[in-house]
Amino acid sequence: MSVNLSFLHDNETRPLCRDLLAKRAAWLLRRLVPAGKNVSVVLMGDRDMASYNSRYRQRQGPTNVLSFAADPAPGQPAIALTEHEIGDILISVDTAAREARNNNTTLHDRITELIIHGLLHLLGYDHERSEEEAWVMWDKEQELFRELKCYRSGTMAQLAINIDHVATVRQARGGAEPDPVIAAGICELAGALGIVVHLREDRRHIQDRDVRILRQTVKTKLNLEMAAVKEIILIALDLKPDMITLVPEKRRELTTEGGLDVIANENKVRKTIDKMSRAAIPVSLFIDPDQEQIKAARDVGATFVELHTGRYCDAGTEQEREREFNLIAESAETASGAGLRVNAGHGLDYRNTARIAALDTIEELSIGHAVISRAVQVGLDQAVREMLALVKPPFPAR
Fold first, then answer.
1. Could you say which of 108, 117, 198, 205 is catalytic?
2. Mind listing the domains of the chain with CATH numbers?
3. In a 3-state reduction of DSSP, which class is residue 154?
4. Least buried of 152, 184, 376, 381, by fewest C-beta within 10 Å?
5. CB within 8 A of 97, min separation 6: which ones?
6. pTM for the whole thing?
């Protein structure tokens, strides 16, 4: 049982994540089709789709999806297939993109809906025969899409804890406690798979001593957030953390405000990435969920992007929150399709994290303030475990 996914459209203009779509299609195939049967999914542009639509359906212009069954009903179109194939599904990416915009959904989700629609046609469902059959097919499509969205087709997202605010409390009294190094060990023992610290130019919380000891003691992964300034770059090159994340930094801000403008700082960012690459240090760019910033991040050679989730977390209305969530989901898919690995963070808490963690294309969430605040009430170990339960829930196996 396999899915043959092929692209005939311009993936540079409209990047698609092949891995995500292939995994979703494979899940659907396992869910619906007997073992040993295969299906082909071809993604194309409007021009190619219009040609197929004219040839096989005698209709002008493109459509969103066409299905060609290996064993079609009388009068239905067919093409030559092997005995192990149930058929082909053709999808116009251009049409799907227009429909995604009109339906306020992501392109990958719309393509997934069309794969479901096409696959059900191959299995004998037909919405054109009668209104009753149309409703049966529509109900089945909705059921499958809901199940698929509850099943994360990739590995679970990881949780990295930002311990900056442990140092903030320490610096408030100018003493030695609480020690962020000890806090990092507690977070790792509780199940966190990464520790994040931001070594700022003004050293308002994390100090040089902290990052040097953390480099020696962190057992999972140390992510050093930093601005692209000479002093901090030299420290990073000396320490060699497991990765760095370039962030914008302003003297008077309480915390990082907005994503890095990669386009405006292209030369500086590119030079920093080149230096880190020579030292074998992967670079992530903390950016807003913006298509142009994603393209710029890819062009300057970043390995990761960390999508800024602040606007989603701070949304004042349900409509605004939904809009910001869809923007993050679409940006994560675009970045993954462009060859970037995707993390996310900023403002995530115990109420809004689970939905972001469920996005297939996001590998890791960086969360700090919410966990440290919760730790004041229940202890750091418990606070980390509670967040981990939201990031990695017990999804049902399929």
1. 198
2. 2-150 (3.40.390.30), 158-391 (3.20.20.70)
3. coil
4. 376
5. 14, 107, 110
6. 0.78
Residue 130 CA: distances (Å) to CA of 39, 58, 61: 26, 21, 25
198 is catalytic: yes
Can you list the alpha helix ranges (DSSP code H) found in 58-106? 93-102
Closest CA to 27 of 152, 142, 138, 124: 152
Instruction: Walk across the sheet containing 85-92 and list its strands.
Output: 2-7, 38-44, 85-92, 65-69
Of residues 197, 278, 194, the one with CA closest to residue 232: 197
Does the annotation mark 346 as catalytic? yes
Among 225, 306, 324, 333, the one annotated catalytic: 225
What DSSP state is assigned to residue 228? S
Angle between helices 107-122 and 318-337 (to 10 degrees): 80
225 is catalytic: yes
Q: How far apart are CA 271 and CA 355, in angstroms?
A: 35
